C-alpha cells in the first residue's frame, strides 16, 4: 500500500529555524523523515543518523558532510520508498540530480526554496563554487517542474526569479507562503519612547554576504548609534577603526539577551546589500517584538515594508536619519502596532495552514 505524504528535513541538527520549520508541519495524517545526530520521538517518523555537529566550527569538510552527504543519504532512501508526495523543506540540488530517476518515478515533489539567487563573496574561489551551486539549482528546478513538482518560496520577488529560471508555462507550479514570524510575546505596541537620538540594533550571525562591513565603511554611519550583536563570521569587522557609538557583541546570544537588547534599542537595522539572496529571519523576529525596521532598498524588504508599513527603506546610509526625523512618538507607535499586526497575521499557524492546503490539493489529485 502506498503512503500519501512525507515531510523531509535532513538538516535537523543545524542551528536556526530548521527544527521549528519541520516540527510545525508534523501531523498524524502524514509521515516525517529527518537526518539528525539524535533520534527524536516524532510520530510516524523515520530517523537517518547524522554525524554533523552544529556546535563545532564550520569547515569545507563539515559543510560537505552536513549539506551534501546527509542530503544524498536521505534522497537515496526516499527513492526506494512508496510515497506519493514528498515535501523537501530544504533542497540540495546535487543530491536530487543524482537520485532524480527514483525520486521522480511515481512521486510528486513539493520543494521549498528559501533563496532565489546565488551568494556573492569577495573570494574568487568562493564565488566560483557559488556559481556552480547556482547552476546545479537551476538545472535541478528545471528538471523537477517538468515532472510536475510544486515549488514554494517566501517572497514574491523570489517567486518571480524562480519563474524566470524554470521558464514559461510553469507559473502555476510556483507559490508564495510568507515566512512566518514568531508568536508575539505582547500585543502592546511600543509607545512613549524618546526617539530623538535613535538606537539601532543589528543582530544575528554577522556574515560577509550581509554587507555589514561595507555599510559601516561608509562615513555616514559614524553618526548612527549602532549595536551589533551576534557571532561575527565576517572577521573584517574587527579591522574597523574604533568609534564611540559602535558596540560589537561577538557571541551567540540567548533569547533573554536578545530581548534585553531589543528593549534598549529603537529600530532593527538591516543594511543588507543588493546582492543579498537569503531570507530574513531577523526581519520577521523584529516584527514579532513590535520593533520597527530600517532596511536597505532590496526586494525582500521593500515588498513587505511598502505593503504593511512596518518601517522605512533607505537607499544609502546618509538617508537614514533624515527619513527618521519625521517619525515622532505617535508615528513610531503606529509603526510598532503595524509590526504586531503583521506578526499576528503571518505566524507559524498561518504557514502550516497554507502548506496543508497544498498537501490536500496534491493528495486529492493522486
TrEMBL record:
One GO MF term = glycosyltransferase activity
Coiled-coil regions listed: none
InterPro entries registered for this protein in UniProt: Glyco_trans_4-like_N
Say which domain of life the source belongs to: Bacteria
- Indicate whether Transcription regulation appears among the record's keywords: no
CDD domains membership: GT4_PimA-like
What are the residue boundaries of the Glycosyltransferase subfamily 4-like N-terminal domain, all occurrences included? Answer: 64-144
Biological process (GO) annotations held by this record are: lipopolysaccharide biosynthetic process
Q: Which UniProt keywords apply?
A: Transferase
Which range is the signal sequence, renumbered to this chain? Answer: none
Protein name as it appears in the record: Glycosyltransferase involved in cell wall biosynthesis
- Annotated organism of origin: Dyadobacter jejuensis
Lineage at the top is: Bacteria, Pseudomonadati, Bacteroidota, Cytophagia, Cytophagales
Amino acid at each position: 500500500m502506498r503512503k500519501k505524504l512525507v515531510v523531509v528535513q535532513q538538516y535537523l541538527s543545524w542551528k536556526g529555524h530548521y527544527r521549528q520549520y519541520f516540527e510545525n508541519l508534523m501531523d498524524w495524517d502524514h509521515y516525517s523523515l529527518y537526518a539528525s545526530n539524535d533520534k527524536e520521538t516524532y510520530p510516524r517518523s523515520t530517523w537517518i543518523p547524522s554525524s554533523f555537529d552544529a556546535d563545532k566550527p564550520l569547515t569545507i569538510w563539515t559543510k560537505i558532510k552536513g549539506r551534501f552527504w546527509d542530503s544524498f543519504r536521505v534522497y537515496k532512501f526516499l527513492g526506494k520508498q512508496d510515497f506519493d508526495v514528498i515535501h523537501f523543506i530544504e533542497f540540495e540540488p546535487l543530491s536530487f540530480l543524482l537520485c532524480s530517476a527514483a525520486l521522480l518515478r511515481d512521486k510528486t515533489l513539493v520543494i521549498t526554496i528559501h533563496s532565489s539567487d546565488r551568494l556573492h563573496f569577495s573570494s574568487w574561489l568562493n564565488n566560483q563554487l557559488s556559481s556552480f551551486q547556482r547552476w546545479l539549482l537551476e538545472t535541478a528546478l528545471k528538471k523537477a517542474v517538468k515532472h510536475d513538482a510544486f515549488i514554494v518560496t517566501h517572497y514574491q520577488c523570489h517567486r518571480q526569479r524562480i519563474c524566470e529560471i524554470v521558464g514559461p508555462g510553469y507559473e502555476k507550479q510556483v507559490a508564495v507562503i510568507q515566512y512566518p514570524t514568531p508568536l508575539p510575546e505582547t500585543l502592546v505596541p511600543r509607545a512613549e519612547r524618546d526617539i530623538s537620538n535613535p538606537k539601532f540594533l543589528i543582530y544575528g550571525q554577522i556574515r560577509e554576504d550581509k554587507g555589514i562591513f561595507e555599510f559601516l565603511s561608509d562615513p555616514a554611519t559614524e553618526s548612527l548609534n549602532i549595536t551589533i550583536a551576534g557571532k561575527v563570521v565576517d572577521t573584517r569587522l574587527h579591522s574597523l577603526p574604533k568609534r564611540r557609538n559602535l558596540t560589537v557583541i561577538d557571541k551567540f546570544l540567548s533569547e533573554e539577551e536578545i530581548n534585553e537588547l531589543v528593549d534598549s534599542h529603537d529600530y532593527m537595522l538591516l543594511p543588507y546589500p543588493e546582492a543579498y539572496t537569503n531570507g530574513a529571519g531577523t526581519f520577521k523576529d523584529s516584527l514579532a517584538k513590535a520593533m520597527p525596521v530600517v532596511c536597505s532598498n532590496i526586494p525582500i524588504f521593500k515588498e513587505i515594508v511598502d505593503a504593511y508599513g512596518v518601517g522605512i527603506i533607505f537607499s544609502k546610509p546618509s538617508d537614514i536619519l533624515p527619513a527618521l526625523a519625521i517619525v515622532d512618538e505617535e508615528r513610531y507607535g503606529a509603526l510598532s502596532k503595524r509590526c504586531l499586526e503583521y506578526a499576528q497575521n503571518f505566524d507559524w499557524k498561518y504557514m502550516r495552514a497554507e502548506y496543508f492546503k497544498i498537501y490536500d490539493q496534491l493528495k486529492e489529485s493522486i
